[in-house]
Amino acid sequence: MFSKACEYGIRASIFIAKNSYDGKRVSPKKISEEINSPQAFTAKILQVLVKHDIIKSVKGAYGGFEIDKKHIATIKLSQIVEAIDGDNIYKSCGLGLKKCNDKHPCPVHDKFISIREGLKTMLENTNLEELALDIKTGVSFLKT
Amino acid sequence: MFSKACEYGIRASIFIAKNSYDGKRVSPKKISEEINSPQAFTAKILQVLVKHDIIKSVKGAYGGFEIDKKHIATIKLSQIVEAIDGDNIYKSCGLGLKKCNDKHPCPVHDKFISIREGLKTMLENTNLEELALDIKTGVSFLKT
DNA sequence: TTTAAATAGGATAAATTTGTCCGAAATAAA
DNA sequence: TTTATTTCGGACAAATTTATCCTATTTAAA
């Protein structure tokens, strides 16, 4: 469904959000430990999220990654997915046709539209706040 | 969503089904031309489909790939996807956790279940017959 | 039985994704 | 201002996926 990079990016974002509620910045080392991901690779993905203004980085001593508290509830999963994987998952044809639309549909065009709309709607209606909160209360987990 | 191999596999299966209704066997060359896919790679995927008894191959002169007419309506997309990509798309965690279940869920566990159930149901309820028919009547297409 | 035609399958290569390493640049605190 | 700490960014490496090529094997027809 998503690339590894995107999975790590979502998990990292949730972890950063949770810590930002506690006023704590976190390092790639800490993040990768807590979400169980390769550190250097995760650091690369964090750079992408910074470039897309989804998370904030602070260099130097006592630096790290954070998200403005006010911002957390406004960040949707769709933004993270699009920043890392692009919008292919919504837009590209389920059977890989370069051009697939209502006028020139692949054999599963209609059937896929509803699936993808469902996914899109879900990602657009899920924000980091609720996900971070579930981590905080121990309802859900970021690693096995 | 699916791998390239799986996209080619589905498109190839539909094309073979359509031709089998006309009593015609088709070669990897013809298939790859008609679904616009790399020939040798497509041939490899056909071998996988043969191994899984989804399509039939006939060697030698006047050979090629076909599907028993009686069989076409019973082949579901889910069988093709599982043969090529496995059942990860249904079963594996949306955020990549090795172990993700109701007792130990990832943050998007519940939200993903409905999406994936929808996909699974769709794949399990779509058979090659209806897809091949749409190609035959020019309602849908296998290449751009 | 011979031959031509077709799939099967192994070896290999290219492209993409995933992952690592290390020095440069920035920054807060001493 | 200096120093320690931290992210940034480029180069590189490994793994996986995608793709190609060539020979062996099979098989139906002549």
From TrEMBL, chains A, B:
NCBIfam families linked: rrf2_super (TIGR00738)
Annotated signal sequence range: none
Alphabetized InterPro entries for the sequence: Tscrpt_reg_Rrf2, WH-like_DNA-bd_sf, WH_DNA-bd_sf
SUPFAM superfamilies: Winged helix' DNA-binding domain
Name recorded for this polypeptide: RrF2 family transcriptional regulator
Higher taxonomy: Bacteria, Pseudomonadati, Bacteroidota, Flavobacteriia, Flavobacteriales
